[in-house]
Design a protein that fits this description.
By secondary structure, the chain is α/β, with parallel strands linked by helices. The chain is 41% helix and 23% strand. It has two domains: 221 residues, no CATH class; 115 residues, Roll (Nuclear Transport Factor 2, Chain: A), CATH 3.10.450. Strands 3-2-1-4-5 form a five-stranded parallel β-sheet. Strands 6, 7, 8, 9 and 10 form a five-stranded antiparallel β-sheet that branches. A hairpin with a 3-residue loop joins strand 8 and strand 9. The protein starts with a strand and ends with a helix.
C-alpha cells in the first residue's frame, strides 16, 4: 500500500485569540483533530504520517506569547478605569513562557497518543541555504513575483524546501500540504513533478477540505482491510498505556532482558517512541486478553552509578488486560539485532 504524509501550515493550525482567548493550555485549531479523527475512523492511520513543521511550532508559541501580553495589557488598562467593591484584579509575577513551554510539552504528549503517527517536519538543512537565496533572487514561488518584494514569502519558502527535503529522504511517501496560502500554486506543483518523476503533490485548504475527505475515503477503499484489533477504542486505551508512567515502571521489571544480567547497569528512564507494526491480538478468553505490540522504545541507562547513556531498542511487548481499561506488561522480547547489542554491552567493563 502507498504511504501518505499530510503537512500542516501555520495558517491552518492558527488559533484566533480575539474571538476566544484561553491561555491556560496550548492547542492547535480543531482542524488538526478533525483530520486525525477522519483518518482513524477509516482505519487507515497505519498509512499516514502527519508532519507539523518546526517553524509552525515556533510561530504558534510566539503568537501565544504576544497575544498573552496584549490581552494582559488590555486587562490592566481596563482595571485602572474600573473599581469594583467585591472583585479585584491582582497581577501575578509569573513567567508565562515557562508555563507555555510546559503546556506545549503536554500537548505534544497527547498528540503522540493518537493512532496516527505525528512527527515534526525539520527545517531545511544548511545545504538548502543557497537554494533559498537563489529562489529569492529569481522571485520564484513561494517568494512573490516580479512586481512584488522578492523577500516576502521566506517562511513559505522555508516550508517548501523542508517538504522537498523530507520527500527526498522518504521517496515512498505521497505528500499532501494543507495550507490556506495561495502562494502554493500550480508552478510549485510543476516544480515538484520535475523533481520527483512526474509524481503529484496535493494542495488542500479549508475550502477544499471535502477534497481531502474524499481522498481519505478513496484510500480506505483501496486498502480494503480492517484493523487487526476488533475494537478501535481498546487500541486507543492500550496506546495511552504505552505512553503512561505505569508502562515505564512496568518495563523496569524486565531490565535483564533489555540491558542483560549486569549488576552495574540500571534503567532509570523509559520513553515509548512509536509502534513499528500494528498491534496484534494474541490470545483471549473469558477473563484475559493479550496483545503483542511491536514498538520502539528509548532507555536511559545508568552504568556503575557514574555514566549515563541512551539506547533505543525494537521490542515485542506482550500486554495483558482484563477489562480494556487496565493494562500491564506481561513479557517482552528483543529482536535479534538488539540481542547481539546486549551481548556487546555485557562485555563492556563498567
Amino acid at each position: 500500500m502507498k504511504k501518505y504524509c499530510i503537512i500542516f501550515d501555520t495558517n491552518v493550525l492558527f488559533r484566533n485569540y480575539d474571538r476566544y482567548a484561553d491561555f491556560t493550555c496550548f492547542s492547535f485549531s480543531d482542524t488538526l483533530n478533525h483530520v486525525i479523527e477522519e483518518i482513524e475512523k477509516r482505519d487507515i492511520y497505519d498509512l499516514f504520517t502527519i508532519l507539523i513543521p518546526t517553524v509552525v511550532w515556533r510561530e504558534m508559541r510566539q503568537n501565544s506569547i504576544e497575544k498573552y501580553n496584549e490581552k494582559l495589557a488590555q486587562l490592566k488598562d481596563k482595571h485602572q478605569k474600573i473599581r469594583l467593591p467585591f472583585h479585584s484584579f491582582e497581577g501575578q509575577d509569573k513567567n508565562y513562557e515557562e508555563f507555555l513551554d510546559a503546556q506545549i510539552k503536554i500537548y505534544k504528549k497527547n498528540l503522540n497518543s493518537k493512532l496516527v503517527k505525528i512527527l515534526d517536519l525539520p527545517s531545511p538543512t544548511n545545504s538548502c541555504f543557497y537554494k533559498l537565496v537563489n529562489r529569492a533572487y529569481e522571485k520564484r514561488p513561494p517568494f512573490e513575483g516580479r512586481d512584488k518584494r522578492s523577500d516576502k514569502g521566506f517562511k513559505d519558502a522555508l516550508l517548501w524546501e523542508g517538504i522537498l527535503q523530507y520527500k527526498r529522504a522518504h521517496p515512498e511517501s505521497n505528500m499532501i500540504l494543507y495550507t490556506n496560502d495561495n502562494m502554493f500554486n500550480d508552478e510549485l506543483k510543476q516544480e515538484y513533478r520535475l523533481l520527483f518523476d512526474n509524481e503529484e503533490i496535493l494542495f488542500v485548504n479549508d475550502e477544499k477540505e471535502l477534497e481531502l475527505m474524499n481522498k481519505l475515503s478513496e484510500i480506505a477503499l483501496e486498502k480494503d482491510a480492517t484493523f487487526p484489533v476488533p475494537n478501535t477504542d481498546e487500541y486507543i486505551t492500550l496506546k495511552q498505556y504505552l505512553y503512561s508512567d505505569k508502562f515505564g515502571e512496568d518495563i523496569k521489571n524486565f531490565s535483564d532482558k533489555i540491558v542483560g544480567k549486569n549488576e552495574f547497569l540500571r534503567i532509570i528512564d523509559t520513553e515509548f517512541i512509536n509502534l513499528t507494526d500494528p498491534i496484534e491480538e494474541v490470545e483471549t478468553d473469558e477473563v484475559f486478553t493479550e496483545y503483542a505490540a511491536y514498538a520502539k522504545c528509548k532507555f536511559v541507562i545508568e552504568a556503575n552509578k557514574e555514566v549515563f547513556f541512551e539506547t533505543t531498542k525494537d521490542l515485542i511487548l506482550f500486554i495483558t488486560t482484563t477489562d480494556n481499561t487496565t493494562f500491564w506488561l506481561e513479557d517482552l522480547e528483543l529482536n535479534s539485532d538488539d540481542e547481539q547489542e546486549n551481548n556487546a554491552i555485557l562485555t563492556e567493563d563498567y
